[in-house]
Specification:
The complex is a heterodimer of chains A (about 80) and B (about 375). Helix content of chain A is about 5%, strand content about 35%. Chain A has about 80 residues and is mostly beta strands. A five-stranded antiparallel beta sheet of chain A has the order 3-2-1-4-5, with no helix packed on it. In chain A, strand 4 and strand 5 (about 70-75) form a beta hairpin. By secondary structure, chain B is an alpha/beta fold. Chain B has two domains: about 1-315, Rossmann fold (3-Layer(aba) Sandwich), CATH 3.40.50.11740; about 320-360, no CATH class. The chains are: A mainly beta (about 80), B alpha/beta (about 375). The interface between A and B is large, with 36 and 54 residues.
Chain lengths: ~80, ~375
């Protein structure tokens, strides 16, 4: 699995905000599941990829998840 | 961008602002507290308060986890980081929080191996790749972040990684809200509830606010239209003499929260009897520590910390700002001795802190008013 971890230096500064400290979750789409390790490769709408812990959600490929500190904490309900 | 663009629509924002204007009683002053630092940041960034009538005031609450960390805990963290063979890891904003004798960044400059990570999983990876070092993760955050720490600890235990420990500073949101509501110098009309905390704990834990304190709470998303609509829902409850917990952020927050996450939290953590909050003092059962089953991964147990209580700097009025008693710019050192580059108080450190958010965005609107 190809993994691209965001540069923390880009995530934490006092003008753009720290996603983790700010209690912010980011919507990311599941690209590929790795059920053996309980992880998934996800991407946000700008194409940034991240390995995400998926133990707390029932994720399948294509699902939209809310990701905080590399952990999916919720699934986004997409209106039909 | 999905779930972003439609919630930043300026035309719709003006419509909601018009509905708010039609809802308020012009003879009354309304104070609405946003609990979450992410909301504070959004309010200043998008100048949401500029869209509200003058008699609707937004008050910034204690919802930035960095801002409520007392200096003594920073000192304890630095003491751990300075131990021989330790790699100390924490989130970016924590690096600049001042302790009584400097910040993590200062300790790093003096030789401690302190590294910024994006998630606890990154810290665990560091432990795996540095088996001859002790890797400590300084865990901080509300219930939004605690599941990530819990899952990492479960992973460390399952994989038998012995050189990884956590210094736990996770806090819970309900006890400080209760403490705030019991504070005699506070007058609030309603709350914008913390959307991402609620993805984990749900909206139910906040039902005591209408039941015991007769105030509405609306769980809110973080885009400008989310916040505006939540304010409108609170004002509508007040106009209709209703007091309820409502969920504006239904696209993400189930009313009951994430049951799997709650199970994980109860396995890995237990409540501390009390914990000190910057500016708010000691609050009972307001923070988490590692449970008995995970005590061997608790950095405080493995290494010991000084645990000395340090009083906040006298000039700093973070406590009053966190309680919403004063506005950031009413603090004596705001923007002069205390700036984001050289913060005295924690509210100026994190971008979600009320002072830093106002310093970065809000003062512009005040300058506009002055012209």
């Amino acid at each position: 699995m190809t993994v691209s971890t965001p540069d923390p230096a880009l995530e934490c500064d006092h003008t753009t905000g720290c996603i983790t400290c700010g209690d912010e979750a980011v919507a990311m789409t599941v690209l590929k599941l790795d059920p053996e390790r309980g992880l998934a490769l996800c991407a946000d709408d700008e194409g940034r990829r991240e390995t995400v812990e998926i133990a707390l959600v029932d994720a399948t490929e294509g699902d939209l998840l809310m990701v905080h500190a590399a952990t999916a904490i919720a699934q986004v309900e997409v209106a039909a | 961008m999905r779930f972003v663009d439609e919630f930043r629509d300026a035309e719709l924002g003006r419509v909601v602002a018009g509905e708010i204007l039609a809802t308020v009683d012009p003879s009354r002053h309304y104070k609405v507290m946003e609990v979450c630092g992410g909301h504070t940041h959004a309010i200043y960034k998008y100048a949401i308060d500029d869209l509200l009538p003058e008699n609707v005031e937004l008050v910034h609450g204690p919802g930035c986890p960095v801002c409520v960390i007392p200096m003594g805990r920073v000192d304890d963290g630095i003491a751990l980081a300075q131990q021989e063979g330790v790699i100390f890891t924490c989130f970016g904003d924590m690096l600049r929080v001042p302790g009584s004798n400097g910040s993590f960044l200062d300790a790093k400059a003096e030789g401690a191996d302190i590294r910024m990570v994006y998630s606890p999983l990154d810290a665990l990876r560091l432990a795996k790749t540095n088996p001859d070092r002790q890797v400590i993760f300084f865990a901080i955050g509300f219930e939004t972040t605690a599941p990530s720490t819990a899952l990492t600890l479960m992973r460390a235990k399952a994989e038998g990684i012995e050189n990884f420990t956590v210094m736990c500073n996770h806090v819970t949101i309900v006890p400080p809200l209760r403490a705030l509501l019991d504070s005699p110098d506070l007058r609030l009309d309603g709350f914008i509830g913390p959307g991402h905390v609620c993805t984990v704990v749900g909206a139910r834990p906040f039902e005591f606010i209408p039941a015991d304190y007769d105030k509405p709470l609306v769980v809110s998303g973080f885009e400008p239209l989310d916040v505006l609509q939540s304010v409108q829902m609170i004002l509508l409850q007040l106009a209709e003499d209703r007091r309820e917990v409502e969920n504006q952020y239904t696209r993400v927050v189930p009313y009951e929260g994430n049951l799997k996450a709650l199970e994980v939290l109860s396995e890995v953590f237990e409540l501390r009897p009390h914990f000190e909050w910057r500016g708010l003092g000691f609050i009972s059962q307001s923070a988490l520590k590692l449970s008995e089953a995970y005590a061997d991964l608790d950095a405080e147990e493995r290494f010991g910390v000084p645990g000395v209580r340090v009083a906040d700097p006298k000039a700093c009025q973070c406590g009053e700002v966190l309680k919403g008693v004063i506005k950031p710019w009413e603090c004596k050192v705001f923007g002069t001795a205390c700036t984001p580059e050289r913060p005295i108080g924690t509210c100026m450190v994190s971008p979600e802190g009320a002072c830093a958010a106002y310093y970065n965005y809000g003062r512009l609107s005040q300058e506009r008013e002055a012209v």
